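Collaboration report, partner site 2.

Our partner group contributed sequences for two proteins of shared interest, and the home lab folded both. The records are reproduced in the order in which they were received, starting with the first partner submission.
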Amino acid sequence: MAYPPKIEEINEIFGIRYLLEAKAAQLATPKTTTKTLQKLEELHKRMCSCTTPHRDYFFLNKEFHINIYQASGWNYLCRIITQLVDQVHAFRSRYPFRSEDFRSFNEDHEKILEAIREKKPEKVGESILTNVRRGFETLVMVYRQKEKLDNFSSQGKEV
């Protein structure tokens, strides 16, 4: 059985993702077609309709991001990013988003879409980076909360 990566590995994975995803988004921006933009807008709409944390949001979010990067035409880069995202998903499944995080992620996605519509690669890269960083920060926060609960529970058992 494969185990999700440790928090130290998640930190490393996100450090790499910051670089690769921002670059992929910048490369994709001038190549994004109307059809791709429509697909992204539909995914965004579906994510906005999610009212509670659940698996659907994670998969829609992944599809949203990967569709952006695929527009770059850099297939190998997209495969590497997908592998990194999949590693985080294995970890994230144990530490899901909180309901209040959805609004922030969806607002980030709207800014990403706006920058793509404007064909501003730097702005798209910055918006992607903001969104991916927010994902990391919320993941670490939920992880630490769970770690405290686990420590509290194990101390209670020893008494």
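Second partner submission, folded after the first:
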Amino acid sequence: MAAENKNNTKAWIIVAVILGLLVSCALGAVAGGAIGYAVGKGRVSRVPVPLPSPAPEPQIPLPQVPEIPESWGGALVLRVEPDSPAAKAGLQVGDVILAVDDEPVTMEAPLADHIQRYKPGERIRLRIYRGGRTRELTLTLGQNPDQSDMPWIGIRYRMMPDLDWRPMPQAPGNRGRSS
């Protein structure tokens, strides 16, 4: 029986030592955290931290936007082929072709449809929009490099939607505000 009591006592001592170590570790962690928090809090209030200065914003030039006519549509010239009929007539990238021989260029009547009504060698008048003004150019159609019987002006373009930019009438009591 004495041997059994001795073994039980050893087991309880081992358990007590392990529990004591675990409790002391937990208490040490809590106490260390609390002391670290208190010390850190005291230092922050006494030592100002300089804030970084904001980076300078780059100055980006804004593009010049031409005045927009009341009614806008047509074919925006994206590229003018060198030595093409368009280049010889003075057409430039950024021009908007508004009409061919006084017939408006619209989404319903695109530039290609207007040009296809003519034959290579015929002269046409283009009304264009450039730099806030409309101008007239005369152009002699060339032969399409892919189909010699088809007319060609030598540009790449994108049709622009027909937009009406006239200001809308404002309702009474809605002065100066827009939605």
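Feedback sent to the partner group on the second submission included the following. Residues 174-179 have pLDDT under 50 and may be disordered. The chain is about 30% helix and 25% strand.
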